[in-house]
Design brief:
By secondary structure, chain A is mainly α. Chain A is built from 13 helices and 2 strands; from the N terminus they run ααααααααααααββα. In chain A, helix 9 packs antiparallel against helix 10. The longest helix of chain A is centred in the middle third of the chain and has 32 residues. Chain B is mainly α. Chain B is built from 13 helices and 8 strands. Chain B is globular. Classes of the chains: A mainly alpha, B mainly alpha. The interface between A and B is large, with 83 and 85 residues.
Chain lengths: 352, 479
């Protein structure tokens, strides 16, 4: 296999890993207002993903870095072309991550509510914009002979792309529900299961419509097979959920997202950024790639270290494998009396 | 216009990001160190210090991580032509950083934070050490990428594609600029971590909240002060080597650091100059004879090239090539001159405070530590090394201008051609406002946790549990 193809596959793997893993923590974030009816329940939700969300996000950073190294032109065209959407993603990722990190740092309701909103907004906005972005990439965007994006932000907000955004949000929501059902116990577990049964079909329908629309445009035999398998996995997930098989149900959405993302990359290949202006101006694995020297070195690094990463991330999931319930949640982080009263500045306690 | 806005954005986001990076690198070593010592001594004070510093660490790590993503995306968003030109070389260290370092840091930090009572103690301590190693690896690869911009090696220009292509990756990773920059930055980061430890502990000695805790804070302060001084010596020595390499590969930067216009043998080092900085009117100058020559060349009689000579040389050398021409090859002098002095001055002052703290503690007489002016010193020493770091970066990055890759690629040719001024302005304003709000939150949280001090230990102290027996026990740590 050509090195350029190897790297196309590796980048597809990184994005797939990203959506399979961070997909469920986006879902958990979206569920805050739905399942998090009490403070204890919100903390249960938060702690199901507490030790792992940060590691999940690194899949994105690695996907970005690998694209830069292996396909500099892809990286340059995509990141400058999707300027404002990516700006929004960055802002959403920042406030969402800090919501996880800072929410528990003060025992103050106003403080917590504000961070809750950051978590919810961030968890919806990021997958929505990734959905918009990837739908646009697969369908093609206006790119000129100099490999520059020539449209505007309005070009990117076409109906199909917006639908792609909604579909990804719906799938992440389902993925998150099944994760919560798998990782918790008691009331919150049965609530998650019931809700997954109710809204799951919306996610299945949305994902199916999106993949068929994209497939009609640029599908191949391989991509149709993957799409079909993804649909089977998603339906199986819902059926298994109805039979209380949460572990298998979550595996189902995990596979479905993986197959769906993989099918998008199969539809793309050998293009990486198809030009809707002129097919001759499309960025392909060949004309967007780095030199063979760089790809060769990167291949060694990737082949040696990606398995190690999988190993220790797997260890984290194994370590924190127990179900969490409201009983496991210790009292709020700073219920002890803080610094002696005379040291408190007047601004404290008012929230920020 | 786009160049200016994109540069401002890079400056704002980088300096901000780099406020948290050195603190994270340095502090993780102290968290790991105290945790390890606890394992050997079973002295609860060491565990309390480790957990206390761990909280300050996570607050800073959070912001460092998210602002780091902005840095990665920004190359493609604002500097797409630069990304196309050097992606073959520059992208690799970035990708390797993510794969080797970021995954380690974030995964093992999660294990350390949530792992109390869940994983065997030794493995638990190993987790925080792995986090620390991850931060160092991160620094290494990012600095390797930056060193390529200061002194490009291991590449050739492909005449067909007009871009730089990798010929020798080992040369990129062992760039002579990198060999001096990495130790310099690592030591400077340890200074930052030590300063936080020293500052936080000195404050508690000053306040004397719980008299029983005084020995613990004294230990912390002493460790912080000694580490600050050792790291400070490391910074000075590595900085001296760096000065010589810089004089060799970027003579203009050394000349700009001193605002030295005429080439001189036995050049003096200027501590302070009040003048127009354009070489015409010098009103007051305090100088150390021959020191600049020594810093730059290792000999008191060495030749330091002046700005005028270098400018003429560069004009002749580069003006021909269409790709790399620039109206001037001299960086903004007040910026380089003052940031260089602030870097050195602030760094040295923090060492002076550390000495003073050590002296105070040695006499076992805390009277000076409880005087009214002490908190000001504490406040200064806690942030001084971070500021020194920031000025160091401002110096080294602005001193390279007008080049993006020295001698190869100018800054103005690197911006994204397809991005509008309105878009860059939007993101510049967005990041500036967002970062300002986050700074307020971060500072308040850090102060709050620093003032709260080390938590008393639960009884029994954090014994690792048998994995099966206590399923309904509350978690030892939860968000």
């Amino acid at each position: 296999m050509e090195l350029t193809t190897v790297w196309f596959v590796l980048i597809a793997v990184l994005w797939t890993g990203y959506f399979c893993l961070e997909g469920f923590d986006f879902g958990v974030g979206m569920l805050f207002p739905v399942l998090g009816t009490t403070e204890k329940r919100r903390r249960v939700l938060l702690n199901t993903i507490g030790p792992v969300w940060d590691g999940n996000e690194v899949w994105l950073i690695t996907a970005g870095g690998a694209t830069f190294a292996a396909f500099p032109h892809w990286y340059a065209t995509m990141f400058s072309g999707f300027y404002l959407p990516l700006l929004l993603i960055l802002v959403a990722l920042i406030v969402r991550a800090l919501g996880f990190e800072y929410r528990h740092k003060r025992n103050d309701d106003t403080w917590r509510q504000r961070w809750d909103w950051m978590i919810i907004a961030g968890s919806v906005v990021v997958p929505f914009i990734w959905g918009v972005t990837f739908t646009n990439i697969v369908r093609g965007i206006p790119i000129n002979a100099d490999r520059e994006f020539t449209g505007s932000v309005l070009t990117l907000l076409n109906p199909a792309a917006l639908f792609g955004g909604l579909a990804l949000v719906a799938v992440c929501l389902l993925h998150g529900l099944l994760f919560v059902a798998l990782k918790t116990d008691g009331e919150i577990r049965s609530d998650a299961r019931t809700l997954a049964g109710r809204i799951g079909w919306v996610a299945v329908a949305a994902a199916a419509v999106l993949l068929v629309v994209l497939g009609l445009d640029s599908g191949s035999v391989a991509s149709w097979i993957m799409t079909a398998l993804a649909a089977v996995a998603l339906v199986a997930a819902l059926l298994l959920n109805a039979r209380d098989r949460e572990g298998l149900a979550f595996t189902g959405t995990f596979l479905a997202i993986g197959l769906a993302v993989a099918s998008l990359f199969v539809m793309l290949f050998p293009d990486v950024m198809p030009s809707s202006t002129n097919a001759a101006w499309s960025l392909t694995v060949d004309n967007a790639a780095s030199s063979h020297k760089t790809l060769g070195i990167m291949t060694w690094v990737g082949v040696l270290f990606l398995p190690i990463v999988l190993l220790y991330q797997g260890f984290t999931y194994w370590t924190f494998r127990k179900r969490i319930t409201t009983e496991h949640i210790p009292p709020a982080h700073d219920e002890r009396d803080w610094a002696p009263r005379r040291d408190r500045s007047p601004s404290e306690g008012a929230g920020v | 216009m786009n160049v200016d806005l994109a540069r401002w954005q890079f400056a704002v986001t980088t300096v901000y990001h780099f406020l948290f990076v050195p603190v994270t690198i340095g502090l993780s070593a102290f968290v790991a160190g105290f945790h390890t010592v606890y394992l050997r001594t079973r002295n609860p004070a060491h565990l309390r210090l480790s957990k206390f510093l761990g909280k300050l660490f996570t607050i800073n790590f959070g912001l460092g991580l998210v602002t780091g993503i902005v840095q990665e995306f920004q190359f493609g968003m604002n500097w797409s032509d630069y990304s196309r030109f050097v992606g073959d070389i520059f992208g690799a260290p970035l990708a390797i950083e993510a794969l080797l370092a970021f995954f380690l840091e974030s995964t093992f930090l999660g294990l350390w934070i949530f792992g109390w009572g869940r994983i065997p103690e030794k493995l638990h301590v190993a987790c925080i050490w792995i986090v620390h190693i991850g931060t160092l690896l991160s620094a290494y690869f990012i600095l390797a990428a930056n060193s390529f911009m200061q002194h490009p090696v291991g590449y050739r220009i492909n005449p067909e594609t007009g871009r730089a292509e990798l010929t020798d990756f080992v040369a990129v990773l062992t760039n002579k600029v990198q060999m001096v920059t990495f130790p310099h930055t690592a030591f400077a980061s340890y200074m930052c971590g030590a300063a936080v430890v020293l500052g936080a502990c000195m404050w508690h000695i000053h306040k004397k909240h719980v008299a029983d805790d005084l020995p613990m804070y004294r230990t912390g302060a002493r460790v912080g002060a000694i580490a600050l001084l050792v790291a400070g010596a490391g910074v000075a020595i590595s900085g001296d080597f760096q000065g010589k390499v810089m004089t060799e590969v970027q003579p203009m930067k050394m000349a700009a650091a001193e605002a030295l216009y005429e080439t001189q043998d036995s050049a003096p080092f200027s501590i302070l100059t009040v003048s127009s900085l354009n070489g015409e009117q010098e009103k007051v100058a305090i100088t150390v004879p021959k020191l600049l020559s020594f810093l730059g060349t290792g000999s008191f009689d060495g030749t330091i090239h002046g700005i005028n000579d270098l400018e003429a040389q560069y004009q002749a050398k580069y003006q021909q090539a269409e790709l790399t021409s620039s109206p001037s090859y001299t960086p903004t002098l007040p910026l380089t001159y003052w940031s260089f002095r602030m870097m050195i001055g602030i760094g040295m002052s923090s060492c002076a405070v550390a000495l003073l703290a050590l002296w105070t503690l040695r006499r076992r007489n805390d009277a000076p530590a409880r005087s009214r002016w002490w908190p000001w010193l504490v406040g200064f020493v806690a942030v001084a090394p971070v500021l020194g770091n920031a000025f160091g970066w401002i110096f080294t990055e602005t001193g390279r201008q007008p080049w993006l890759v020295f001698g190869l690629f100018t800054t103005k040719s690197g911006v994204s051609p397809g991005v509008s001024t309105a878009e860059v302005a939007t993101s510049l304003i967005t990041f500036t406002l967002l970062y300002a709000v986050l700074a307020v939150i971060e500072v308040r949280l850090t102060l709050r946790y620093a003032k709260a001090g080390a938590e008393p230990l639960k009884d029994p102290p954090d014994t690792p549990s048998d994995s099966s027996s206590d399923d309904s026990q509350p978690l030892q740590f939860a968000y």
